[in-house]
Amino acid sequence: MSRRIDYPLLQESAYVETLPSGLTVIALPRTGYQRNYAVFMTQYGSNDNVFVVPGQDGPTEVPDRIAHFLEHQLFAMEEGSADQKFAEWGASSNAFTSWTRTAYLFTATSNFLEGLQLLVDFVQNPYFTVAGTEKEKGIIEQEIHMYEDDPGWRVHHNLLQAMYHNHPVRRDIAGTVESTGRITKQLLDDCYRTFYHPANMVLVATGNFQPEDVFQAVGAQLQQQDYQPQGEIKRIFPDEPTGVKQARIVERLAVTNPLFALGFKDSRVGLRGDDLHKQQVLTEVVLQVAVGKSSDLYNQLYADGLIDEDFGAGYTSYPDHGYSTLHGESKDPETLYRRLIDGLSDLRGRGITEEQLERARRVLYGDYLQHFNSLENVANQVADGYFDGLDYLTYLNVLSSLTLDDVNQRLSEHFDPAQAAFSEVLPIEE
Amino acid sequence: MTEFQHQRVSGIDVYLNPTAQFKTNLIQLFVDRPLDRQNTWFALLPHVLKRGSAAYPETVELAKHLEDLYGADLQVATHKFADRHVFELQLEVANEKFLTQATPLLRQALSTLAGLLLNPATQDGYFRTDYVNQEKDALSRAIDSLFNDKGDYSAYRCIEEMCRGEAFSLSYLGSKDDLPKIDAADLTRFYELVKQEANCRLVVSGDLTMEDLIAACEGTISWPNAGQFGVSGSQVKAAGEVHQVFEEQTVSQGKLVLGLRTGVGYADSDFPALLMYNGILGAFGHSKLFMNVRERASLAYYCYSSLVPANALMLIEAGIAVEQYEQTMAIIEEQMQDMREGKWDESEYEKTLLGLCDAIKGRGDRPDRLGLRLVEKQVAGTDLPDDELLERLQAVTPEQVAAVAKKVQLDTVYFLHGEEGEEDSDE
Asked: Does A55 touch chain B (CB under 8 A)?
């Protein structure tokens, strides 16, 4: 039987059921929507390249970014490609790989339950062939080259390289053309067996449907296979010093406007569940007060032409790593760097006021409601949070519960200049 | 299927999509005028307007006011359709139903947005010089910034080359050369002119009735130009000799963009057949371009086609290795030839029809795009509702698709490439 959880502030309910195979399914019905969306996610990303396969003794080390290659390969089915089958209903499917997750998804206005079964079917029944593996390499090479030319991606990736000494988050998700070349069918099989057991996955469906229909469709599909319980997957991460590896990093690319990303590497790691959620929301509040549209710092930098409308700030965190970034384009990254560091230090000295906290709370409240309009966004966030014991649907409650002391403590601890790294992408010198 | 309710109030065309589907209400103001050599003035204008109103002359005070309205999100954008230049001021606010305190957000948001458009912050009768200068600099950087995104840059360059001599070759961002000519007095005079000659549309998606909306509009918003004009229809032009443009930069992937003339306007009876054509050829993951360039030949990560309906244009884009240029061009030409000969199997046709229907039915889930599509369609002279479009799509015959395929002509080949490729050449 499924469990119903009500979220009175959102006026929504979620339905959760763990199926006999170990898969947790979360259904979030939404009225008025024409489309339905589902995401089938595994707790496996490009960071997971040293691990102990359940049942084995020693660790296995695999080439960089095999998770991303696996994502491309799984769409292959014996009787054709899964995305072609989705297209037969007018549905569209896709997938993405991050540092910590791999997700398979589709959206459809009709045949949603059949779509759910196909989603589970193609992800749970790999069809790797040598020919398919070779064919995909050319495609992934072009994907890698596309990212190499993307200055927004480069400035972020370089920032991670500057902040982290050893943690695999510093390496590129898609890998290099060279690492892609070393991927074999056997390696794909090993990684697949380890990370794609239903107990290591979650399925989130949202849209206009009856939750029981979703559980039944997914359950019926999974029943066709005999799943044995899987032991815990041990992921091995290298030791990571608290401080940043290097304070500055620069790359030159064919750009007209320089790009920058200022990062603060979190020294407080190891949190999960509600604690992790609280830390995320606290950091968002602090960033909002520090560089939100009504902050003095933002307005001064904008008036001086040092930042533009594309300026943004955000916080990313998982149990094993976390960082915030302030990023955008700037005509003068060097001056901007000093002004940002000084401005954040000033704020740390002054502290955040009750009025600033309340205003930030309102902004984030409105932003969350805005994000909640997107089926894709909600389902992806719910799935992502699930693995770390964090419930995205409780965001407004967490936001309401924060105190001024919490916020000021976080401000002081997170914007430590010793934890900062600055990444720049500059025009190629003539 | 979303269909807007329409009413004309105080010189403004008001459109409402009444829906309780979302947790926010969306308010959009669209202003359009001819796309001409004053494009830089028009592109700059909304950015100066967003800086402050008579009620909130300081940007930081405006920002605080918007944040107090539960983070009302103010966005500014400019676009071009057919031979019109469009700017957009948008505010998205929380639906009061989801707030713990009852605050009349929608009415306040509408009044704030109207204040920015109609009662801007001024000094001695003109826009504030500091705002004008800062926004000129920001616009100059935004124009430069286009170069940073190689995909967008390539598509932009292809259209610029293809439409040389037409209004559509002008940038929706304007030109850096004009910026030194613009000052506060000059821009203020232009603004007064815009109020006389431009159209203004208010588009709202949200949990309210037309009566509520009209009541909120009365006394809050009006537009001096009360005439209805500016429907110029799609710009349908024929292609001449194929024009080739190769550009070299330090990039690791080549960006190929083909510019084509479809010969079919947005309001034309064979527009649904053009949608089918574009779908079978390149709009989807099952389309010929994706299947042949990516899946069979492994030449690209992306390869797709897209329409610019109000200008009867189509673009085909692919990211490829420089040395694969000839092979990619040959495969694309082969697919276009198959289209002309009506060579597709039933499943390609069915998937395309269903895929288009799915996309059209799902449009209501993204209200931010509905307003812009409404403006685009009106500029192009069509008001075909989506349910009728669905019916017409179902009625399209394969012969009609092949007939459209024969109309589509290659006009311009644009290729941005790294150093190994060919030298710069033009024509």
From this structure: no
Nearest to A373 among B24, B70, B285 (CB): B24
Whether A366 sits inside 8 A of B93 (CB atoms) is yes
Q: How far apart are alpha carbons A110 and A200 in whole angstroms?
A: 29
- What is the rounded distance in angstroms from the CA atom of residue A174 to the CA atom of residue A149? 14
The arithmetic mean of pLDDT across residues A19-41, rounded, is 97
- Is the CB of residue A207 less than 8 Å away from at least one CB of chain B? no
Contact status, residue A233 vs residue A55, Cβ threshold 8 Å:
no
Q: In chain B, which residues have their Cβ closer than 8 Å to the Cβ of A372? A: 23
Q: Which residues of A touch B144 (CB under 8 A)?
A: 256-257
Instruction: For residue B286, give both structure tokens.
Output: 């099952």
Q: What is the pTM of this model?
A: 0.95
SS3 A161: helix
Chain A 138-167, residues with CB within 8 Å of chain B CB atoms: 138-143, 145-146, 148-152
Confirm if B339 and B280 have CB atoms less than 8 A apart: yes
User: Residues 298..337 of A with a Cβ closer than 8 Å to B: which?
Assistant: 299, 302-303, 305, 308-310, 329, 331
Identify the weakest region by mean pLDDT among A284-288, B106-110, B117-121, B350-354. B106-110
Closest of B250, B230, B240, B245 to residue B380, by C-alpha: B230
Interface contact flag, B250 A254, Cβ < 8 Å: yes
SS (H, E, C) B232-282: CCCCCCCCCCCEEEEEECCCCCEEEEEEEECCCCCCCCCHHHHHHHHHHHH
Nearest CA among B64, B40, B43, B62 for reference residue B51: B62
Extract the tokens encoding B7.
């009413």
Rounded Cα–Cα distance for residues B233 and B253 (Å): 37
Distance CA B422, CA B427 (A): 14
Q: Under an 8 A CB cutoff, do B134 and A138 touch?
A: no
B226: its two tokens = 């009360």
* Candidates A91, A145, A366; nearest CB to B71: A366
Note whether B70 contacts A255, CB cutoff 8 Å.
Answer: no
For A86, name the nearest residue in chain B, comparing CA atoms only: B351
Residue B81 to residue B100: CA distance in whole angstroms: 42
What's the first-to-final CA gap in chain A, in angstroms? Answer: 67
Cβ contacts (< 8 Å) between B350 and chain A: which residues?
88
Q: Which amino acid is at B20?
A: A
Q: Where are the alpha helices (DSSP H) in A260-295?
A: 273-291
Q: Which of A71, A136, A284, A424 is catalytic?
A: A71
Percent of chain B beyond pLDDT 90?
Answer: 88
- Nearest residue of chain B to residue A310 (CA atoms): B142
Concatenating the DSSP letter of every residue in A232-260 gives PPEE------SS-S-SEEEEEES-SS-EE
| Catalytic residue check, A71 | yes
pLDDT at residue A79 in the model: 87
Alpha carbon distances (Å) from B411 to A390, B159, B278: 53, 10, 16
- Using an 8 Å CB-CB cutoff, list chain A residues near B77: none
User: Closest residue of B to A375, CA-based?
Assistant: B365
Q: How far is CA A216 from CA A46, A213, B67, B287, in A?
A: 32, 5, 44, 33
ipTM of the complex: 0.93
List, in sequence order, the alpha helices (H) in A323-391: 333-350, 354-371, 375-386
Nearest to A285 by CA among A146, A194, A408: A408
- Model pLDDT for residues B186-207, shown as the tens digit of each residue: 999 999 999 998 999 999 999 9
For residues A126 and A225, give the distance between their C-alpha atoms in angstroms, rounded to a whole number.
13
pLDDT of residue B421: 43
Average pLDDT over residues A174-196: 80
Q: Does the distance separating the beta carbons of A146 and B68 come in below 8 Å?
A: no
CA pseudo-torsion sign B58, B63, B69, B73? positive
At residue B12, what are phi and psi to the nearest 5 degrees?
Answer: -115, 135
